[in-house]
Amino acid sequence: MSSNRGFTLRASDISFIGENLSRPECVLAQSDGTLWISDNRGGVTRRDPDGRQTLVGSIPGSPNGFAIDRRGDLIVANMATCAIDRLTRDGKHETLFDETPSAVNFVYADPFVDRLWATTSTKSRPIPDAARNPIPDGTILLIENGERRLVADGICFTNEVRLDSAGEYLYVAETARGRVLHYRVAADGSLGAREVFGPESMFPGATVDGIAFDAEGNLWVTELSRHSLHMIAPDGVAHCVFEDPAGETWKLPTSIAFGGPDLRTAWIGSLLMNRLATFRVPAPGAAMAHWKA
Predict the structure, then answer these.
(1) With CB atoms counted within 10 Å of each terminal CB, which end of the chain scores lower, N or C?
(2) Is residue 224 within a helix (H) or strand (E), and if so which, with residue range?
(3) Signed CA dihedral, 280, 208, 171, 148: sign only
(4) Surface-to-core class of residue 15, CB atoms within 10 Å of its CB (0-12 exposed, 13-18 middle, 19+ buried)
(5) Over the stretch 202-213, which tens digit does the pLDDT of each residue have?
(6) What residue ranges do the domains of the chain occupy?
(7) Contact indicator for 24, 45 with CB cutoff of 8 Å
């Protein structure tokens, strides 16, 4: 049995790192201990292993989820400008795509093929209303060879995506329905029919946000309304790892990243906090495409 299956947290298991972060919605970790953290003051905050923090970038709008591509650049989803931007590590940026009316939420680097997956959450305004009320206007885009194409639509606030360890299925957080979908991936990146993975909703009224796999195939899921964290086992059985309905320990957890020398340290991003929650897990997280970048 998976050593993470059934794992739960207590508030005393959780500590915090970082200071004066601004909307640290997305977190990525590298093998050298560097953390990259989204920052609505212009791009990302780089947190070095010694704790030094540096704001990188001056992108207008609201940088949200991002990926590290094979060049080592950061590809940033900008919800406010509906654009996807490339940000180099010295702070230069360029807009890659901007001709969409939809709120671009997240970008994910495919670990198997040199391409990116991007999500748009909604065309509706104000954006937060669409996260709470199911409006099926979210999409998934595939970006390859400088071109993008629509591969899925009709999703109620598309959020983070991940591929499984075999690259067989793409998993998608459907925020407004509080659940995870998955799609079989064809060789050309086309997606098959959608299926629900795990429960139809994590619980009534749930709003899921970030997802990440561990090395044993469990999918970790952050949830906003109860400030909670859940896990869905490979067989689809879900359990709550931690919940904090009053928001006394953490607030609005939006993403989870694994790192550290053994990939057994987890960090939680947030819409509201000015630091990152962190804790240890029994089994390692799955290394992402950028892990050695």
Answers:
(1) N
(2) none
(3) negative
(4) exposed
(5) 999 999 999 999
(6) 11-280
(7) yes
Range name among 96-100, 145-149, 239-243 with the lowest pLDDT average: 96-100
pLDDT digits (tens, 9 = 90+) for 45-67: 999 999 999 999 999 888 999 99
The candidate with the shortest Cα–Cα distance to 26, out of 61, 60, 68, 57, is 68
Q: What is the pLDDT of residues 225-266, one digit of tens each?
A: 999 999 999 999 999 999 999 999 999 999 999 999 999 999
Vertex 78: Cα angle to 29 and 134 (nearest 5): 100
- Rounded Cα–Cα distance for residues 268 and 19 (Å): 14
Burial tier of 112 (Cβ tally within 10 Å: 0-12, 13-18, 19+): exposed
| pLDDT the model gives residue 4 | 84
Residues 6+ apart with CB under 8 A from 131: 121, 122, 157, 175, 176, 207, 224
Distance CA 37, CA 16 (A): 14
Task: State both tokens at 194.
Answer: 């959608």
| Contacts made by residues 244-248, CB under 8 angstroms, sequence distance 24+ | 244/11, 248/11
**DSSP secondary structure string, 247-266?**
-SS--SEEEEEEESTTS-EE
280 contact partners, CB below 8 Å, separation of at least 6: 13, 264, 265, 266
pLDDT at 1: 53
Residue 6 pLDDT exceeds 90: no
Q: Residue 283: pLDDT band by 50, 70, 90 thresholds?
A: very high
Q: How many residues does the chain have?
A: 293
Architecture of domain 11-280: 6 Propeller (2.120)
Q: How far apart are CA 245 and CA 54, in angstroms?
A: 32
Q: Cα-flanking dihedrals φ and ψ of residue 144, to 5°?
A: -155, 135
Q: What average pLDDT does the chain have? A: 96
Q: How does DSSP classify residue 176?
A: G
Select from 244, 248, 250 the least CA-distant residue to 272: 250
